Every structure is written in structure tokens, then in C-alpha cells.
Amino acid sequence: MFNIEEELKKLPGSPGVYLMHDESDEIIYVGKAISLKNRVRQYFQSSRKRTGKIEQMVSRISRFEYIVTDSELEALILECNLIKEHRPKYNTMLKDDKSYPFIKVTVNEDFPRVMFARTMKKDKAKYFGPYTSAGAVKDTIELLAKIYKIRTCNRSLPRDICKGRPCLNYQIRKCNAPCMGYISSEEYKKQILSVLDFLGGDFGGVVKMLEEKMYQASEEMLFEEAAQYRDLISSVKAISVKQKITKDEAMDRDIIAYAMEGNDAVVQVFFVRSGKVLGREHFHINLAPHDTGRDVMTNFIKQYYGGSPFIPKELLIQEEIEDHEIIEKWLSVKRGQKVMVRQPKKGEKEKLVELAKRNAEIVLEQDKDKLKSEERRTKGAMQEIDNLLGIGYTKRIEAFDISNTNGFESVGSMIVYEDGRPKRSDYRKFKIKWVQGPNDYASMREVLTRRFTHGLREKKKIEEGGMSDEYGSFTRFPDLIMMDGGRGQVNIALEVLNELGLRIPVCGMVKDDHHRTRGLYYDNVEIPIDRHGEGFKLITRVQDEAHRFAITFHKDLRNKKQVHSVLDDIEGIGDVRRKALMRQFKSLEAIKEADIEALKIVPSMNERAARKVYEFFHPES
């Protein structure tokens, strides 16, 4: 039994991260501290004045645990990672999990390429961005290819020069074919320098160059070519118009403001790179009870920049944040140079923050109905199911299904929904090992036994080793288990849980004669559902998703088995040749009908291998 008073006495005075658990062992809050002893004790001191949010959270704490770190900076980094992993109820949460694209120029190559990139790596390439629109990035790369005729292939140059033919891009005059040696490395790199200038915002030189070529083509009466240059000039000007110049032309900065109403908040960010506004983006925030604007701003910065590959030199923010100095230090370490976080009080910068705030208010107003609808569809649906079953608060649902064909390659699926949304990273597949033949009940018993035994084993390892940030994939147990079926499947689940000493509510999703969900079987009673309610729609989605996931896994295994049983049994046909044959002929039937000459021309095949395949399917020949 966890004795909070006794455990408080054991807390070290070191920096670290603490995790608060409720009675169902759900992590409901993650925080960091310079001194764990001082910080965690504050939550349980009755004399201390607490906010409504903290008061509510403390009333739910059943136990706590902690991780000691060497510094407050390490604690901040770990806190960000744990919040992202567990998404605790009482932490202010960023809903959106977006990544922003970059334009990558591989300047470390002899013949560099201009590429679309989702992440910025330490690979000696030059990166521009991040940009808010993947479409705009692709359009820009396409434009650069037209203007500068930059290669887009993956050939290793100069090693592969003159190996093969030039591609279609050379034929349509979109590439100078360095792969054929038609342009020297020096000339090609001059084009790349112009690309770098363009991406750095120097549009004037490009427009001047294109205009000269347009006039020259016109004088030579090459009107079609002149028209192409005219269109390129229009494209460049369209891009340059979108780049709003700010006064500090060398500065990379993000301008951040928010708007709040009820349980909803929106954070608006303007992205300024090299003094130009590249775009803006808004983020919806899940507010914890009694959150303030300061909470929103602090938690947004920690969560968003914790996952961002690019950190600007300056953040202009609407409201002062907690842990200002340590967050600045953390951002500076991530960037590799000093980062400033400022709340401007007057002047041009204050006007920019105010503009971001007005945009956040507009987005919040526009999305209000959509957010309420989404809330009803997800958390509202979970609440309906809670009320129907009378089981209290449910955050995590796990559903299981079995799929087989007359007992062939039986598989089980486990899908997870949290707050009414699928959590696909926690989905799991089980290949049935202990059961022979078509026995769905025995197969379900195996899947549930393996799932929860594995989870208990991982929990024990964590407890024996103290606290670790390496959580096992099965340690989070559901608040509700949903079985695809009625009384039989529910009883199997209850038997397994009872054998393992676990108390988790289990209900069955019962279908009618037309295979449509008609109700829930719970506590030995079939409970009818309002077919027009959000709870019913969520149950249907869960049931369909569990079935889809199991069927997909079963088909994959069946297909692999079919291919293996035929082709891999042929002498001399390994994985590479098997794949090559299937790519060439598309089906086993086509391979059977092919003659030796047709088989021989397949990549990686030779005459001996082709003859082996032919003789395998035609033993009489």
C-alpha cells in the first residue's frame, strides 16, 4: 500500500521529474522540479493556497513516483518527453501533432539536389524553412527545377556518369543531365549558388535573368520559349509577393499569441525567417481544469519546440511564461546559440503579437462549432458509454478480435481508443501460437492472457528497477475492455482477468442477425443503445476497426504463406528472386504459364534459375 506521508519523507532534494497517478494507476500529471522534495511536498500541504486545478488534481492522487536528473535542464527535457508520451489529464495539452517541411539542398554532393524534407538532420546539407505548406514547398522545388535545371534523380554522381541514358527531364529541358557529363561540376554548382540565393530571398536577380532570356528569345522569334520565361517570371513574382518584409531583415523569430474561451484555446504562430513572414499556423489546445493564459503559453512552448527541429533566434510572446530562464537555456541548447524569449510591451513587436492574438481569436470563433462537434463525437461519446454502463470515468478502451479461415493462420488484434480517438501507436497484433484449429474462444483466451501477462511482467520490471523513462508497450491497462461478441467472449475475458488478479470492466459488442451492432452485454445483461447517439457511433467505429485490423493482419500472413509455400520451395529461388518474379508477373498463375525465355529476362534471374522454376511447375517436361 502506497503511504503518501511516508513517501514524501523519502524524496531527495535533487532536480527531477515527478509523475502523479490516480487510483486506476493512470498518470494524471507530470511536472519538473529544481528540488523534488520541496516541490512535491507543496501539493500535500493543507496550509498552502492552491488553484482550483491543483486542488482537483490532488484529490485524485493515489500515488506518485519520480525520476532524479543531474540538472533542471535535463528535468525540463524529460518532462516534455513524458508529457508527449502519456498525455496526462491535468497537463495542458497541444492537440495538433504536426510536422513542417523544409527545402533541403545537398551542398555536400558533387552535383547537389534540391529536395523536400520532413526533418532537419545534421548531414552537412543546407536547409530552408520550416514552411507551413507542403504544397508550397513542392511548388517551389518544381519552379527551381524549371529555372535552374537541377537534377532530381538519386544517381550517385560522378560515379554513375554515362551509365545508362538521360531521363525524361532532360528530354523536356528540365535537367542539364549531369548524369551524362553534359554539364561540368563547376557550372552545375554555379546554378546551385543561384538556387541558394533564391531560397535566401534574392528574387531580383532571378527575375532580371529570366527577363533577359525572355527578351532574347523574343528577338530571335522563339515565341513559345519566350512565353515559358514569361510564365516563370510570374511564378517567381507570386512567391516574392508572399514574403512580407519586416524591419529586422536578418532575424528568425516566431510570434506567439493565444485566445481562450471555456475549455478551448487556440495558439497562433507567425513564422518569420530571415526577416520574412513565411506563413502562420494555429494550434488547438486541450485545456486542463482552471488553466490560465500563462499555463497555455508555457506548455505550448515546451511541447511545440520540444518536437520542432528548428528553433528561431527569438520568440515574441503574448504573456510571460513560467521557468523563463530555464526554457531560454533549453531552447538555446537545441538551437546551438542564444535564443531570446520576450514579451514586448510597446512598438512594432507588440503590434505583431497583437496581430497574432486577433488571428487566434478569429480562428477560435470560426472553429467553435467544429470543436464542440468533435468533442461530442469523441469525449462526449465516451461519456455516453460511461453513463450507459455506470462505470465512471473512462479514458482508454481496448478492443479485441480474432480472424482466421477454418483455423488457418489464426490471428488476434488489439486496438486502442483514448478520449474517443484511435491511438494507433498502441495497436498490437498477435499470431496465435497455443491453439490449433478454428477455436475463437481459446484463441481469445490466448490473446488476452499474453496481453495482460506481458503488461504485468513489464510493470514488475519497472518497479524492481526503480523508475525508468523506458516504459514497456503493454504497461498501460485499459479503463474498459470491449469484446467483439456477447456473453461467451465477455466470460472468457473475465476469466483471464480473474486468473491474473485484475479488475477491469468488460463489455461485449453484440450484433443482430444482419451483423449490425444492437447493444452492449455488460454485467450479465444486454443493454440496448440509442442508435442515433454518439456513443453508439463510437462503439460501431471501435468494432469495425478491431475487425479491420485483424482481417488485414490475417490477409498479410495468408499472402506471405501462399508465396512462400510455392516459390520459396524452388531450389535457387530466394527472397530477391521471388520478389522479382512477383513484380514481373503479378501472380503465381502467370509465373506457371511463363516459358524459360520469359523467366530468364526477369532481373536477378539466370538460365539455370529460370529452368528450375519452369521444371517445378512442369515436372512432366
Describe this structure in words.
- Helix 12 packs across helix 15.
- The chain has 19 helices and 21 strands.
- Mean pLDDT is 82; it is low at 241-249 and 467-471.
- The chain has 5 domains: 4-83, GIY-YIG endonuclease (3-Layer(aba) Sandwich), CATH 3.40.1440; 102-242, no CATH class; 253-367, Nucleotidyltransferase, domain 5, CATH 3.30.420; 396-559, UvrC, RNAse H endonuclease domain (Nucleotidyltransferase, domain 5); 566-617, Orthogonal Bundle (DNA polymerase, domain 1), CATH 1.10.150.20.
- The strands form 4 sheets. Strands 14, 15, 16, 17, 18, 19, 20 and 21 form an 8-stranded mixed sheet that branches. Strands 4, 8, 9, 10, 11, 12 and 13 form a 7-stranded mixed sheet that branches.
- It is globular, with a radius of gyration of 31 Å.
- It has helices spanning 4-9, 36-43, 52-59, 72-86, 134-148, 168-171, 185-199, 204-219, 223-241, 293-306, 324-335, 347-389, 440-464, 487-499, 534-567, 575-585, 588-593, 596-600, 607-617; strands at 16-21, 27-33, 63-68, 93-94, 102-105, 114-117, 126-128, 244-245, 253-261, 264-273, 276-286, 314-317, 340-342, 396-405, 408-418, 421-422, 428-431, 480-483, 506-511, 517-522, 525-528.
- It has 621 residues and is α+β, with helices and mostly antiparallel strands.
